[in-house]
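Try this one yourself first.
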C-alpha cells in the first residue's frame, strides 16, 4: 500500500502541503518497512518493489480499472521476484525454507510469550501446532503475497485519490460493485484439475506445478469470497441495519461457514448477476 501511494504522489508532481505531507509520511514508513535482513525478507521486499513500480507505471499509462491494474502489477511483480531469485541462484525452494524457519521461530516465540503471560493451554498448543505446520504455510506464501499485493495496490490507489488535489476520475471503484471477468472461473477449474492430477509434479521456478496450482487455487478462492462479500455489501443497502449487524456477527463467529457461503455466492454471480437483479426496475412502477 505504501509503495503505490508514495509512487503515485511522486509522479503526480505534488504541489499542496497535504500532498507533500503524505508523500513524506508514506516514504518514511516505506523506508522503515524495508529494514531487515535475510533471504525471506529480501524476497518479500523485492516483490513489493516490483509490484509498486509496475502498478505506478500502469496507472500513469492508463488510470482505468484499478483492480485489473492491481492484478497485472502483482502477478508481474511476483514473477519478476521469482525470476530474479532463480538468476541469483537461490530459487523459490531456498526462499520457502527460509520462510519456514522464520514462521516456525515466530510461532514458537509467540507460544513462549503466551505461556509466560498465563494464557490457557489451548492458545499455547494452537501456536505450537502452527509452528509445526510452518512448512505448509510457507508453501502458500506466493498466494498470500498475491492477495495482499492486490489489496495493497487498491488501497494505495484509493488513499492517493483521497489526498491528491487533482485525483483521477472515479472508475467504478466502490467495493459493492467489485467484479471481474466471468471467464476467470476457468482459471479456478484449471487449477483445481491440476491439483487433482497425480502427475502434476514437474518443476517450475523451484516448485512443483502442483504447488503453483494450489497457490492459484487459493488466490481464486479469495477473490471469489471477496466478490461474494461485495454482493452482500450491495444487498445490505436494502436491508435493515440491525439484520446486517446480526448477520455480520454470526459470520464472524462462524467464519468458515460464512466464507464458504460467500464463495458460493461469488461463483454463482458469474451466471446469475445478483446485483443487476437488485436494481430497481426501469419502469418505476406498475408492470404492463
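Now uncover the answer:
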Amino acid at each position: 500500500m505504501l509503495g503505490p501511494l508514495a509512487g503515485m504522489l511522486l509522479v503526480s508532481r505534488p504541489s499542496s502541503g497535504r500532498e507533500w505531507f503524505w508523500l513524506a509520511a508514506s516514504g518514511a514508513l516505506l523506508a522503515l518497512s524495508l529494514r531487515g535482513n535475510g533471504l525471506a525478507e529480501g524476497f518479500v521486499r523485492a516483490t513489493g518493489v516490483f509490484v509498486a513500480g509496475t502498478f505506478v507505471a500502469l496507472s500513469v499509462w492508463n488510470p482505468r480499472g484499478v483492480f485489473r491494474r492491481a492484478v497485472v502489477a502483482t502477478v508481474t511483480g511476483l514473477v519478476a521476484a521469482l525470476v530474479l531469485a532463480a538468476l541469483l541462484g537461490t530459487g523459490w525452494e531456498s526462499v520457502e525454507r527460509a520462510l519456514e524457519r522464520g514462521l516456525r521461530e515466530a510461532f514458537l516465540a509467540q507460544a513462549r510469550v503466551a505461556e509466560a503471560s498465563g494464557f490457557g493451554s489451548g492458545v499455547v498448543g494452537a501456536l505450537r501446532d502452527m509452528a509445526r505446520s510452518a512448512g505448509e504455510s510457507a508453501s502458500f506464501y506466493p498466494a498470500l503475497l498475491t492477495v495482499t499485493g492486490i489489496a495493497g495496490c487498491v488501497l494505495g490507489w484509493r488513499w492517493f485519490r483521497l489526498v491528491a488535489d487533482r485525483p483521477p476520475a472515479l472508475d467504478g471503484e466502490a467495493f459493492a460493485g467489485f467484479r471481474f471477468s466471468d471467464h476467470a472461473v476457468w482459471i479456478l477449474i484449471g487449477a483445481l484439475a491440476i491439483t487433482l492430477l497425480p502427475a502434476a509434479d514437474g518443476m517450475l521456478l523451484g516448485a512443483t506445478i502442483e504447488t503453483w496450482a494450489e497457490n492459484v487455487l487459493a488466490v481464486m478462492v479469495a477473490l471469489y469470497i471477496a466478490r461474494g462479500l461485495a454482493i452482500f455489501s450491495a444487498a445490505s443497502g436494502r436491508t435493515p441495519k440491525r439484520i446486517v449487524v446480526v448477520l455480520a456477527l454470526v459470520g464472524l463467529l462462524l467464519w468458515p461457514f460464512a466464507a464458504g457461503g460467500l464463495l458460493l455466492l461469488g461463483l454463482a454471480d458469474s451466471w446469475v448477476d445478483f446485483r443487476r437483479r437488485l436494481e430497481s426496475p426501469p419502469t418505476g412502477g406498475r408492470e404492463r
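Discussion: The two ends are 51 Å apart (CA to CA). The mean pLDDT is 82.
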